[in-house]
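Hi everyone, sorry if this is the wrong subforum. Our group has a chain we'd like a structural model of before ordering constructs, and none of us has done structure prediction before. Sequence below.
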Amino acid sequence: MRTVLTLKNEHDWNLPADFQHDDVRYSGSLVRHFLEAWTNEGDIIFDPFAGYGTTLRVAEAMGRVSYGVEFDARRYEYVRSQLRHPDNLILGDSRQLATYALPPFDLSITSPPYTQKDGRENPFTNYSTEGGGYEAYLGELEGIYAQVERLMKPHARVVIEVSNLKGSAGVTTLAWDVASAVSKVLRFEGEIVVAWDHYSYGYDHSYCLLFTKPA
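Answer:
Right subforum, don't worry. Here is the predicted structure as tokens:
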């Protein structure tokens, strides 16, 4: 697989008007790329941060079986209305993955909720509660992926799409810090740089961090 991808940051469908102010989706073309490369029809795809359902909808359209978890109730209801198998989406908190009845998966692909190094809200509650700071965020992400590891089939892969962030406090090396945190529980296999025609957060590229199950 190439280690640099060039993709258009565009979407296959428009969100309802109520959600368009918060359109933080990644492109369906990114999901298709990894599903075509690493999965087959009937494989199980998992997104622990389902958001507006891009991973789940693309996976269903490609004949895969998709599962996901979403914290926000409004997003959850919207995504359920768009899925062929709505019961495969769980309204819940990915920090509690071990409490949900989820099947072993072949591929997980997601983009986690972002935070700046001076961010105060908790990204894992859709920024609705006070957070414990940047290091606490990374620790919680490590805990989430420790639970993800238990759901991985032996050959399974994990893809995390994430960017570094430029802000008023300088550069938050989010992509590199996420790689370090998740590497404590999964085997880090490197990264793919995605060069977008346009992006945000002060950059025109992001990273797909690649992981496998530890031996």
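For your construct planning: The first helix runs from residue 28 to 38. The longest strand covers residues 152-162.
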